[in-house]
Amino acid sequence: TEPADLDADLAQAARLVDGEISDYSIEKRYIHKQGHHVWVYLTASLMREIEPDGTMGAPKHYLGAITDITARKQLEILDRTQKAELLLLNDSLISAQQQLKERNQELDAFVYMVSHDLKAPLRSIANLSEWIEEDLADRIQADDSQQFELLRQRVKRMDALIDGLLRYSRVGAQELECQSVDIHQLVTETIDSLAPPAEFRIEIVAALPTLNTKRILLAQIFANLISNAIKHHDRADGRVEIEVVDLGDRYRFAIADDGPGIPPGTARQRIFEMFQTLKPSVSTENTGIGLALVKKIVEGEGGQIWLDLDRSAGACFCFTWLK
Description:
Elements: H1 3-17, E1 23-31, E2 37-50, E3 56-68, H2 70-135, H3 142-170, E4 179-182, H4 183-194, E5 201-204, E6 210-213, H5 215-231, E7 239-246, E8 250-257, H6 266-269, H7 290-300, E9 305-307, E10 316-322
Parallel strand pairs: 5-7
Antiparallel strand pairs: 1-2, 2-3, 4-6, 7-8, 8-10, 9-10
């Protein structure tokens, strides 16, 4: 017997012999000859003979039943260990959630600072340049006037960059409700809001589905991809095709254009990174955030996005969206 369990067993046996109890059951350990413990469930009672006068005589024999419960005890020990580990893990998760909450509060404060403390001075710079130009209208040279216009373009670009960063930071920050969305109607409304040139053709070449999804996120994706196809096209009479393929648990959407496409090399490899643009940085229309924003939205909702490299001309962006 394991020495640590012996006293409890002997105490119960003494009570049994003294007649205080008729039997007892305990869980105890024996030491195997190889050194490890064997757990047993022991039930013990006494066999007594009845005396001629009908009274119970002295105990003659012990009657015991021993069941090996080693496997069960090992499971119980493992269960207790796992519960202790889960409690520690839960404490860690609670701590991490609190830290995340604090980080989100810091992010909200940063967003507030960006939207108010940075954009306001930018507007002041643009306004001040216009006032100076008006005050010096009769003395300013043509080259100087161009410089003022360039300054305002840079201010507009910085303002657009801030707006893009704000949109990027807010993705996933709030829980959006799913709703039934007619994708054909959504795409049609998006095209109408982008107001492409009259000669520009945007065709939906496959019947678009109706999904129970987050409308605002899907709208941002289509708006960015279709807008890029229009902005980066080299002709006013360009063409964009919107396709969809049912993949079972998700759809694969494709937005393809017949424009100049994206040149091979590092541009293709870094197209979804922040601040990567194909046009010069002086352009106020291109901040290099749009595709990074789209990628963050798509992957945040369990999808994938990529540039189709099998097209011989133009650019084709594909993304998957869970049903």
